Amino acid sequence: MRSPFPGMDPYLEDQGRWPDFHSRVITYGCDVVSQALPDDYVAQMGEEVRVVTWQEGHDRSMRPDVAIVRHGGSGGSEQPAGGGMVATLEPIAIPFAAAIDEVRDTWIEIRRLPDERLVTAIEVLSPTNKGSSGLTEYLDKRHRLRTQGVNLVEIDLLIAGRRLPMAKPLPPGDFFTIISRASKSELGDVYAWSIQRPLPTIPIPLEDPDPDVFLDLAEVFALAYQRGRYARLIHYDRPLDLPLHPQDKEWAEKIARGKVPS
After folding, report:
1. pTM of the prediction?
2. CA 211 to CA 188: how far, in whole Å?
């Protein structure tokens, strides 16, 4: 079953389906790119495990730890005969100021044979790339790839979180792809589109003078959505809680309501 949206489905992000969806996009994206490559290139998935510090309020889907706090007076605590305080019978969940989490990053690498030299990296951004300590680490990686002469394709299909910094403001849009070519290290080609638009087909640069290959994001999304069976998992009758323009939010919820059986 297909998504009700013509392009990216915001309910995947809003209802916590992003980690599974991201893994599928990387897997199927790697397959699609691999089919388009010349014989002297290969596409593989890269992986790295790292620790990320989340700041309070950054990600509402993070489950807070539970702390048992003490109340006095009329707050429901009892005063024992010998004085002192006792814990309330019911614990109160309180998030700590920051939490540490271990995350697994995956991306797509295009390598040139026979020496398997890294030519292009394709990153599909996750929430950890767009906030807290993960943003700083990602920007370090971004700088390292660019200074090593690697083409970099950055795909941002998330509405929430900070946008990747550029020397000038990004054009209006809800989703972005930034393509940094090794031959033009100071410039990036930015593709921007709104939630109401279909997902585009984007160029994937190879080593000069080889021509670009192309990645159909709509094809990858369709594979990920259908094989993930998200139509059975997502509650399209619920309101969206994402930083969308009010008109786009109203449009998205109307599209979603049309998906819900009457």
Report:
1. 0.81
2. 17
